[in-house]
Amino acid sequence: MGKGEVMEPEQFREIFKRLQTEVQKVIVGHDDLIRKVLIAFFAGGHVLLEGVPGLGKTLLVKSLSRALGMSFKRIQFTPDLMPSDIVGTEVLTDTNGRREFQFKQGPIFAHVVLADEINRATPKTQSAVLEAMEEKQVTVFGDSHILASPFIVLATQNPIELEGTYPLPEAQLDRFFFKLLVAPPAPAELREILKRTTGIESGDATKVLPDDDSGTVNEMKYLLRQVMIAPPIEDYVVRLVHATQAEAQNGGPVQRSVKQYIRFGSSPRGAQSIILGAKGNALAEGRVHVSYEDVEKVIFPALRHRLILNFQAEAENISADQVLGDVIKKVPRN
Amino acid sequence: MQSEPDEGERPEKLIYRLAAKLRHQALLDSLLIFSPPVGAAIYIIAVLFGAAWLGQIPMLVSAALVMVLGCFAVVLRYRPAAPSVSAAAQLLDRQAAAKDHFLTLATVKPADWPASFLSRLRRETSGFSHRVELKRDFPYRLKSSAYWSFGLSLLAAILISFLLPLTASVARPGVLQDRLRALGQEMALKPGLKKVGKDLLALAAKLDEPKIPLEEKQTQAQELKKEIEEQQKKEEQKDNRDLLGQAASALEGVEQQQAGGQERKDEQKGGGGIQSDVRQQGQGKSEQSQGGSGDSKGDSSAQLSTELQQGKTAQGNPKEPSSEKNQQPGDAKQDNQPDPSRSGKEQNKEQMGKTEGGSKDGAGKEKSSEEPPPQGVSPAERFYKGGEGKEGIKNARYVTVQLPEEIAAEGKGESRATKESKASRARNQVPVSNVPLPAHVPNAPSEKQQVPIEYRGMIR
């Protein structure tokens, strides 16, 4: 299918649904989480998953890559992890008596990369990954190496164990399309998890797309960008993002909570994430246009890591989600 | 019943139809809210014009201003209230639970999006169009503000209708005269209305004259009005008829004003009081002079208090110092019991001296009477001896007590003749006597001790 030919929205919806179902076979609960990870994947973004250990974050990413039929690599971030351990390095090789430097690809060269506990690595290593995320290429000894396409980084971080960690700088956080919170399972879900993991039979996700079928994935990504959005809805997104900026409130609906708790508001990337996420949501629901509801469904994952809270918010244990909730309430749709 | 939209009807058309309908509704709302106050204001202006509070040009200017303001208010309210196409589309989305299908279709630029997506969107939206019927789902409902506006405007118009006649009496008289003059001058230029014009000018001049009695002014205004109305019936030219009509309404205003002035005077007279019949006689026939030349209540009450004070003095209150006027030579007794040893004439003089001082105005008028005052001890100004004065009652020594109900009866518009006949009847009923009371007899029955006649009424 060429660029001019577009995949039908029904096809997109079908593939999306099958992928979701396959991942749900392995991951109990977290339906919304799975859906948003898939939306971020087709929107071309990366996802930061935050949750305590043992909630199935790694399993989710593994299952997703399996269902997509994409290559998968996992990088466990530790304080002594070097950038070259991730992006790869030039190694001296002896081929037919000829010794030369050859580039050895790091684990970043995969379609789906799991950066486990990304906040445990040093900022230098973190920035190496984040550069790859943004540029979709790495440069080693002056040579640029293009990363696989599609490419998605799913990074995880533990919000509790903060000792010996290096919290991600704001600029790097901004590069994640969504930040998703992985909540502990409900009792019924936990029962189901136990049933699946402690018995003889263990389910596994089956492939939805053929191996390395990047063509279909790219078509789906292209289709997503063609979803229509009405100018009043775009204006609504602009107003929402603008309302999070405490320093740019002139004439806008000044939120008391924003002024009180926010040090820096969302960047334009936040607005981009909202619109692409809303488009993905609309397509997943079988529509070719974005509605206000689509926007509201993706505001929290798209903006929560882009709001930089101040000391007062931390002291009062105010989360970005609480401030965002206030913003949504105060900003009118039209 | 749900109407079946045309198969070929595009959803965009439905959106535009709804937007137009809502705009009409908004315009109607604005008109219904602002029309009643504008109407009431114009009515009030017309009433003020009719009552001669406003001239013709101010009336026209203010009416035009009110209309312009009304239009401005309608536009000001209509503009934000009129819904845009996107607002109409959102209403349709809400009504049909269409998840922003209508909004997207109404607002996206077709060139920016794939044609296949647009046609798909249009198809889906058409499906939702069936759920909406404009007549049923967006009916026109009269806003409560329109009811309020109508009610308050009506109230204002009614209040003005009732209050204006009441306030007509306090209308600036100058305005009426000016209007009469203006009309008179205008009419004087027209050949057929020259006479009426002159009459109007004369009346205006008369109205300015404070010495002319109100009744006379009123009568003249009535006569002129009658004359004008008759001429208006005969007049053939429309302009002249209009002019005559304006003159008639102005004259009506004059009548109302004069009537108001008369009422005020009557009110000042009312409330009961003691009015000396003697003084009336001394002053002549004019009704205006009845309460003294001053018209205000203050004057009459001052007169009353003076009389009472003098009465006390005459009764011989030792604590009350007598006024200067009452101090006559040999008036040491301070008792109104006449001394039987003195002659009746002397006693009369003395009594007159004691009760003198009722009104300064009265005094002035008495002095101007034809007959010179008797030599020696001057008689009290209010009382004449027999044969003195023009029409004074001989040896009058009584006061007429005018009860409030009598005054009220007078105020109800009884004719002068009736009033005079009543007054004479009252005068006849009041005993007139100058006979000295019998001397004090010890152990005499109590009924023999009579109160001086002139104070009986006051005590009553």
Q: How would you sum up this structure, described in words?
A:
The complex is a heterodimer of chains A (334) and B (460). Helices cover 46% and strands 16% of the residues of chain A. Chain A is α/β, with parallel strands linked by helices. In chain A, the strands form four sheets. In chain A, strands 2-5-8-1-9 form a five-stranded parallel beta sheet. A two-stranded antiparallel ribbon of chain A has the order 3-4. A two-stranded antiparallel ribbon of chain A has the order 6-7. In chain A, a hairpin with a 2-residue loop joins strand 6 and strand 7. The model of chain A has no long low-confidence stretch (mean pLDDT 88). Residues 1-8 and 270-374 of chain B have low confidence and may be disordered. Chain B has a two-stranded antiparallel ribbon with strand order 1-2. Chain B has helices spanning 11-50, 56-81, 85-96, 101-107, 115-129, 134-137, 144-167, 173-189, 194-208, 214-234, 238-269, 277-283, 297-315, 344-354, 360-367, 404-411, 416-429, 453-459, and strands spanning 273-275, 400-402. In chain B, helix 1 (11-50) crosses helix 3. At the A-B interface, helix 9 of A face helix 3, helix 4 and helix 5 of B.
**Oligomeric description of these chains:** heterodimer
Tally of alpha and pi helices of chain A: 14
Category by helix and strand content of chain B: mainly alpha
Sheet bearing the most strands of chain A, described? 5 strands, parallel
Number of distinct beta strands of chain A: 11
Contiguous runs where pLDDT drops below 50 for at least 5 residues of chain A: none
What is the total tally of β strands of chain B?
Answer: 2
Main beta-sheet strand count, sense and barrel state of chain B: 2 strands, antiparallel
Distance between the termini of chain B: 86 Å
Estimated helix fraction of chain B: 55-70%
SSE diagram, text form:
The complex is a heterodimer of chains A (334) and B (460).
Chain A: H1 9-26, H2 31-43, E1 47-50, H3 57-68, E2 72-76, H4 83-87, E3 88-95, E4 98-105, E5 112-116, H5 123-135, E6 137-140, E7 143-146, E8 152-157, H6 170-173, E9 178-181, H7 187-197, H8 214-225, H9 231-243, H10 256-261, E10 262-264, H11 268-284, H12 292-303, E11 308-309, H13 311-315, H14 320-330
Parallel strand pairs in A: 1-8, 1-9, 2-5, 5-8
Antiparallel strand pairs in A: 3-4, 6-7, 10-11
Helix pairs in contact in A: 1-2, 1-3, 2-11, 9-11, 11-12, 12-14
Chain B: H1 11-50, H2 56-81, H3 85-96, H4 101-107, H5 115-129, H6 134-137, H7 144-167, H8 173-189, H9 194-208, H10 214-234, H11 238-269, E1 273-275, H12 277-283, H13 297-315, H14 344-354, H15 360-367, E2 400-402, H16 404-411, H17 416-429, H18 453-459
Antiparallel strand pairs in B: 1-2
